[in-house]
Design brief:
The complex is a heterodimer of chains A (281) and B (207).
Chain A lengths: L14 H8 L5 H12 L2 H18 L11 H37 L2 E6 L2 E6 L3 H4 L2 H51 L5 H92 L1
Antiparallel strand pairs in A: 1-2
Helix pairs in contact in A: 4-7, 6-7
Chain B lengths: L4 H7 L2 H8 L3 H23 L2 H18 L9 H23 L10 H11 L12 H14 L2 H12 L4 H8 L3 H21 L11
Helix pairs in contact in B: 2-3, 3-4, 3-5, 4-5, 5-9, 6-10, 8-10, 9-10
The chains are: A mainly alpha (281), B mainly alpha (207).
């Protein structure tokens, strides 16, 4: 509050004094003195009146109505804004990683299953799983025809041996028959019977030899066939496992690369948001 | 301005402030309830825009929430609150000005010329030639925006927020005389706009 200099009537009141007068901040004494001064200074009186009118006009402006936000939302907003970025980015990065893995799995046709008490993983279509019964039969037929080429010579050799045995046996029997025929009337029934028995034994022996040889050869043949097929299946399995391992390594490498890129992008976003937040404060 | 019950309540909010400083969320919420509308209107008159006013209000109370424990004198809470609000207004003002396009050719006195043009428009265009409250409010807010930053904040704080000159001086870190001087020039500028726009007490319709 200003104390007017009552003695200095010629001095124009200062701006601060005018404001004090307008706002009613002058003492009773100063107020009276000021009003007395205004009577003697019409221009100042007009100015003061205009300022008073201006204040009056300003006072007609009402407050704007505003709906206060829910208190709990406001109070948590500060903490939420501070925690939100970290929570959002963690959740977003986890979700992004899961989406990325799903996308990669879809593109590489990754499949997983549980069969024969074993977890089976694979990429693309497995030939082994997709081979039908007809295809398997064809496969075995192909095997058989392929192995028959190898076994053809063996069979031919076996046939020659058997034929040679039979021919030799027939030649011996023919010699004996000729000897018998040369003996003429002196050949007895016993001798003929003995000869027939001997021939029969030799024939049986030849046939037995043939069957044994044949059975052995067949067993060897089948055994060889199954062994080769087994080797083929093993080879296919090893090739499939190598393919799976290669794809897994490639997938891991791609994923690591993408994870690194994602982390870099997220770190840049987080630092930008923090920067903007601190600037806004 | 006649005191309302709210005004009285705000004056006796010391216990709320103390409890809020101790971390009482409910007490802080009550403080927000008491002061939200005041700070919003402060921001609204400063910028003349609802969105900016809301933003300023939100930022103000976030700052208050973060720093209330550092307030030493409970009696100075009001000044402290408005200082925070004013700082946010200044920050926002600077941000808005940075976004404005700088004209290639500087037109001297361009802003003042524009303000004079604005003020010279005869705004009283109601059929009965009288202004109504809403129209007057819009005019006042528009003219307040034309004032310089120093004059605008003084006029708002004194004429609408009822702050004492001591408090205003404390907020703006100036003397009381300087605050009164700025108010004087602010009121003179507003008078000039009203005259040019032919807005007067006589043209205002009491409803």
């Amino acid at each position: 509050m200003f104390h007017l200099n009552h003695t200095a009537m010629n001095e124009q009141p200062k701006k601060e004094q005018i404001i004090d007068y307008l706002l009613g901040l002058l003492s009773k004494e100063d107020h009276a003195f000021f009003e007395e001064y205004l009577k003697n200074d019409p221009s100042l009186a007009v100015e003061v009146q205009q300022l008073a009118n201006t204040r009056k006009l300003l006072s007609f402006v009402d407050d704007e109505e505003v709906i206060e936000p829910p208190i709990y939302r406001f109070l948590d907003q500060d903490t939420y804004n501070r925690r939100f970025p970290q929570v959002v980015w963690v959740v977003a990065s986890i979700a992004a990683s899961i989406c990325l893995l799903m996308l990669v799995g879809y593109l590489t046709k990754f499949n997983a299953g549980y069969q024969d008490n074993r977890l089976q993983l694979g990429f693309g279509q497995s030939e082994q799983q997709q081979v039908t019964r007809a295809e398997m039969e064809q496969l075995l037929t192909n095997f058989k025809s392929n192995t028959e080429k190898d076994w053809g010579m063996a069979f031919a050799s076996m046939k020659n041996e058997i034929t040679t045995d039979f021919d030799a046996s027939l030649t011996q029997q023919q010699v004996k028959i000729d000897d018998l025929a040369k003996g003429g009337n002196e050949i007895s029934d016993d001798r003929v019977e003995f000869f027939i028995k001997q021939m029969s034994l030799e024939n049986r022996k030849s046939i037995n030899n043939f069957y044994e040889t044949s059975t052995k050869q067949q067993e060897e043949y089948l055994r060889s066939l199954m062994l080769q097929f087994y080797d083929y299946l093993n080879q296919q399995r090893e090739e499939d496992l190598m393919l799976v391992e290669a794809n897994l390594l490639r997938l891991k490498s791609d994923n690591d690369e993408k994870q690194e890129l994602t982390n870099q992008v997220l770190a840049r976003i987080i630092s930008t948001v923090n920067e903007q937040t601190s600037l806004g404060q | 301005m006649s005191e309302t019950l709210l005004d009285i309540a705000m004056q006796h909010a010391d216990s709320l402030i103390i409890n809020a400083q101790l971390g009482d969320g409910k007490a802080f919420n009550k403080l927000v309830s008491l002061w939200y509308k005041r700070i919003y209107n402060f921001g609204f008159k400063y910028f003349g825009e609802h969105d900016l006013a809301m933003e300023i209000t939100q930022k103000t109370f976030i700052s208050v929430h973060r720093n209330i424990s550092s307030l030493r004198e409970i009696e100075s809470f009001k000044a402290w609150l408005y200082r925070i609000a004013l700082n946010h207004c200044h920050d926002e003002d600077r941000r808005i000005k940075r976004k404005k396009v700088i004209p290639l050719f500087d037109t001297e006195g361009g802003i003042e010329k524009e303000a004079n043009n604005l003020a010279s428009n005869n705004i009283v265009d109601a059929p009965d030639g009288r202004l109504h409250q809403k129209e007057l409010s819009a005019i006042v807010v528009k003219y307040l925006n034309q004032l310089s930053e120093e004059q605008r904040e003084i006029v708002i704080m004194k004429e609408y927020e009822g702050l004492k000159f001591r408090e205003i001086a404390d907020i703006l870190a100036i003397s009381e005389n300087t605050a009164k001087s700025r108010l004087y020039y602010g009121l003179k500028a507003m008078k000039k706009y009203f005259v040019k726009a032919n807005v007067s007490l006589e043209s205002y319709s009491y409803e």
